[in-house]
Amino acid sequence: MILYFTGTGNTKFAAEYLADHIEDELVSLNDILKYKRPLEFSSDKAFVVCAPIHAWGFPRIIVRLIKRAKFSGSSKLYFIGTMQSQTGDCDKELSRITAEIGMEYMGFCGIPMPNNYITGGKLPTSSQADELIEASLPVMNELSSRIFQELVITKTDCTPFAAIASGAVNALFNRFAVNDKKFIVSGQCTSCGKCEKVCPVNNIKLSSAGVPHFRDYCINCFSCINRCPSEAIDIGNRTIGKRRYVCPEYETWKKSGLIEEWHD
């Protein structure tokens, strides 16, 4: 069973690739969170949890979900992180969590994907994103093969001062940076409601006048900002005029012949 959490679609693309190539069930953790569905998962195949890397770690909400979830059937648990370049000591934390919940840790690996952190550098153009994703397809292929055979996977990236990055820096990031205090909505808003629909934690509510309001439990997945059709949501002045990014759909790539057939 492939369980994934996504903001702008990078992790969804990787999870769909894995599920397609190993012929496994795909479960959206966004839907689990948004609709408050039971955290009960059953599979005879190994579980694979996929999530984006936020400040050299898994999103805190996904870490809490894993700790609370009930897994039955297989006892094997893999982790996949979509990253721009580095994952710090994320693997060590995930290994500890796996032991805490009585599962067998089968390893962690990061998959390089286009930058989607709008406050952290320029987001890629469509052609740049396509090149980055294409370059990562061999990594996804190798992971598919190893997970299909239930072999251990290992981290391939290296982070300077990894313990500090995934420790103190990650803690500070989650305490002070993860919020919606500076989110603003411009007059470009058309009240389409897409931001409310795509928010995985129901942090956005449209007023009677159709204006998005933020409810102070944002997890900074930035799905609302990047998916707003009119680019009406910003973080203060920091993101005004900056390029948005949404990952292309896996199925579109597959139908276009951009995904090679995989055989074990």
Description:
The chain has helices at 10-22, 29-34, 60-68, 90-100, 126-148, 162-177, 194-198, 223-227, 250-255; strands at 2-4, 26-28, 40-43, 47-52, 70-73, 76-83, 104-112, 183-185, 204-206, 212-214, 233-235. It folds into 2 domains: 2-169, Rossmann fold, CATH 3.40.50; 179-235, Alpha-Beta Plaits (2-Layer Sandwich). Helix 1 packs parallel to helix 5. The chain is built from 9 helices and 11 strands. Helix 1 (10-22) links the parallel strand 1 and strand 2. A 5-stranded parallel sheet has the order 2-1-4-6-7, sandwiched between helices. The chain has a two-stranded parallel sheet with strand order 3-5. It is of the alpha/beta class.
Total number of domains: 2
Number of helices: 9
Largest beta sheet, briefly? 5 strands, parallel
Distance between the termini: 18 Å
The CATH architecture of the largest domain comes to 3-Layer(aba) Sandwich
Shape: globular
Q: Low-confidence parts, pLDDT < 50 over ≥5 residues?
A: none
